[in-house]
Amino acid sequence: MIEAVGYQYFDDYFKKCSKLLKPDGLMMLQTITIADQQYKYSIRSVDFIQKYIFPGGCLPSVSKIAETITDNTDMRIINIEDIGPHYATTLSHWRERMYERIDEIRDMGYSDTFVRMWHYYLCYCEGAFIERAIGDVQMIIMKPMNRDLPYLNL
Prior knowledge:
Layout: H1 10-20, E1 26-34, H2 36-42, H3 48-53, H4 62-72, E2 76-82, H5 84-100, H6 102-107, H7 112-130, E3 134-142
Antiparallel strand pairs: 1-3, 2-3
C-alpha cells in the first residue's frame, strides 16, 4: 500500500523495489491515486481520511509515480489500468456487509460513533470513485532485462 508510505519516501520505496527485483523482474502495483492536478495541494492538506482513517497517508498521482520511477530506478511502467469504477462498487458491498454484521461489530465493543465514522468513510470513498476524484490503478512495472512482455496478455 504505497498510500501508507508517505510522499517523502516514494524515492526510497521505488529504489528498494527495483533493488529487490531480479534484472528481468516484473512488479505489479495497485494504488489509489489522486488526479495529477490535485497532487501538490493534497500533500499540503489533511482531509477526513488522513485525520481519522489513515494518519500520514498520501495518495500519489500517476505522474508522480512515473516521475519517481524514472528518476530513481531503471524500471519502466508498461501497463496502467484504472479500476476505480469497480472499486466504488466494492466499497458499496463492504458497507452492506458491515450492516449485515452490525450486531457482531457492536458485540466486539465498537461504538455507534465508530460505526458512523466507517459508514461515512465508505460513502465518502465510494462517491469519490464515482465522481472520478480519485482512481484506483494497477500498474505493471518492468526491469530492463525482462523479455516476457508479449506473454503478459495485456
